[in-house]
Amino acid sequence: IRMAASGRVLNVNLGVLGHIDSGKTSLAKALSTTASTASFDKHPESKERGITLDLGFSSFAVPLPKHMEGLPYDTLQYTLVDCPGHASLIRTIIGGAQIIDMMMLVVDATKGIQTQTAECLVIGEILCDRMVVVINKIDLFPEAKRDNSIEKMTKRLSKTLASTKFASSPIIPVSAKPGGPEGPENESIGVDRLIEALNSFSSVPRRSSVGPFIFSVDHCFGIRGQGTVMTGTILNGSVAVNDTVEIPSLKVAKKVKSMQSFHQPIQRAMQGDRVGMCVTQFDPKQLERGLVCMPGALSTLYGAIVSMHKIQYFKGPVATKSKFHVTVGHDTVMARLSIFGSPPGSVPRDFSFDQEYCHQDELLAKPMSSPQPAAVAAAVVDDDKDVVIGVQFGLLVFERPVTCPLDSLIIGSRLDADIHSNTCRIAFHGQIIEAITDKAYTETVLPKLKVYKLKKKEGVVERVQDEYSVIIKSMFKKETNMQLFAGLRVKLSTGEDGVIEGSFGQSGKVKVRIPAGLSQQTQTVLSSHKKKGTKSKSGEDSSPADSTAVSVRVILHFKRYNYDPSKKMIQ
Description:
Oligomer: single chain
Low-confidence stretches: 1-6, 35-55, 85-89, 370-379, 383-388, 533-549
Mean pLDDT: 83
Number of helices: 8
Strand content: 35-45%
């Protein structure tokens, strides 16, 4: 609980998301009574172009709603997180969305769901449980047809939301700034009704002062004679004046000189609070945004093992060995991914280095709105093959180290895709299960990861040595190290089991022992196959074209672990 001028305040971080030019910033201004130092995007280009380029923060407070009476608060404060709507700024949107408790999806009344609106809806499904939809700019509808137009748009939006977790979200028509940018100030339509909807739909966010302090910084600036102020949202734990905090990316520790929340001095703040933290002897140019924490609370990651869920609206493949932009906190880094999962037929379970996993070529999609409370619910069905793939995991290897909480959410995107194309660029999401913090992870961590590929090799019996041994050709190349395959079991197409004894000659042939001996029928087949051959001028056997019909095939099944340094073949 934070004490402020208005008494005990419950803070709810309300994300304002939507397509560019849908009127998000105008709506935030119409709602706001107090603006923070980062409000309404002071970026010069933003003012010139009339669009938001960075996260903006402002707030408004209301009396505690009836359904919250009896709780230890006097006031409900909404901190508005105004996220940019421009397609090229999606990494900023994702960074902002990770600090919200509730979401407002702003839709242009005349255009409906647009590309970035859909992407914001996807981000909301990943990061948020409660959403209010705002149909903005209703003043653009002719007054005589306004009610009918609003009703049509509401039905369209309800249909879109029906397949998401937000199917029951309220849809409120407003006009934050009638007349557009040149319109009169302080004249809005429907904003009071929107506040009522927010109040009735709001809930007490999960907050805890327990755990290490982690602070997501989105702006940093200097104040002459005071020091450097870092503004942001507390992701975890709590902080007090005179505490020592660390900037892990710079390996710098500083003492907290003072703190404010929307111009109110405070002594202490906790998870979910929006604060400005003043430190001394620190150049603000060194940190535009990033994470600040209790000393030692954050680690540097070179990679991670993550749970993985494909976004059903992403049209391209999410394939092993491909690269994606991966957003972790406020940081976005390129990462190469390798996908693996539970072996076919096994019971889905949580990740463990003690378990074996099957290499998979691609991440499969399932509806995001389906409940995912347990590992079994995360099982995926391959529609083409009609088999359960099971839980899917991914190994992400970052192109550069990332500093973040060990259990961070991750979002994978194709930010290099054409921003003008009408496609969703958000490809997958998940959570870090195992953080890879050792720089020498290829030697220390990966060998413990038991991911295997199922392999198959096939050859044919060239000739019979005796009743208990045959010579096989066409299974290996002549440069293959046959010692790696010695002792592996094979199966003849005629039913006999065999064991590879070793190489035979220098051309890639191998000798296979048949412990139970060749059946009489197999011997007859092989002997008739040999008789059908004719002698060429060189004296070698030359079989007619149809002789393959009686060839005896030899099949070798084995598995190889992807990260086993010895590259052993296992059966």
